[in-house]
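Bit of a strange request maybe. I'm writing a small parser for structure token strings and I need a real example to test against, not something I typed by hand. Could someone generate the tokens for this chain?
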Amino acid sequence: MNPNEKLEAHYSLLLGILSPWSVESVELNVTTKRVDIEVVYDEKEMVECPDCGKLGPRKDHTEKRTWRHLDTMQFQTLIHARIPRVQCKEHGVKNVKVPWSEPYSRFTLLFVKFAIDVIKACGNVSDAAHLLNLSWDEIHLIQKKAVERGLSRRKDEKIKYLGIDEKSFRKGRKYITVLNDLQRQTVIEVKEGKSKEVADELLSSLSKKVKRSCEAVAADMDPVFKTAIEENLPDADIVHDKFHISQYLNEALTNVWRDENRRLRRENVETLSGTKFLWITNQENYSEKQKDTFNSLKVNLYKVGRGWQIKEAFKKFWSFSYKGNAEKFFKRWYFWATSF
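Reply from user aminoacidic:
Good idea to test on real output. This should exercise your parser:
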């Protein structure tokens, strides 16, 4: 075996190229840092219809096509081939499948997998495009195809627990609403905006099978979500999770602090100025300076201090495992919270 044959055999092994395909030639250009691999189909072999799998006669070939593959020792690697076309009695003239790529793709399967890993690791398109030496449009195409593959594999399975939530982006100027399968920790659907219409669109898109199987939906206390869930999933419980409850308690306490601080400052009292985050931050996360500041405040002298005690007391609610005990605690806590 001469050196060229060894090189071609080497690349056949690397690419997983098997008969009736074979590597015909490998050209290395040191100046352009590029490897070009020519792959051919055995002319003596019949060709397979991609739709039915039946063998048939070859009609002709496509024009030569090129696919980007994983780099070889930092050299950009390209595969070139003319795809045979089969004359199928049932489906007509069809391009045969190539083992290294999906139909109509400009990239090999291995390159696409690597590109997706890079995109996920980078977190933004620009950095991924730079590392992969691809354009923004090429990166977007790879992402789009990956989403389409994922959606095509998604089964119409039963979903026990759903989650619906809004997310802000562009510094809070734009919103999306996300529907999740909480058990599988997967995103089902995303829509731009945050309104009852958006929530309705997300929930109404669920299949009858999913709607029947859903036992509960986790959401915040926005009446938009409550109404949409009740109308689209009337048999499902609405669950307000620990994160959103804590968020609402902190927002309420912040309002108490703001009003009281404003009143005190009109009396030239600055005691509460700059203490906002002390009231809404977990004490275990305090810095030493924050600990000293909080300890120096006579908490019971301030309305925000009493509000803080109410907020902290609610943490016990999450420790109950029996409904009766939880309801009894909540009623006492609610009376305290609404009368302080």
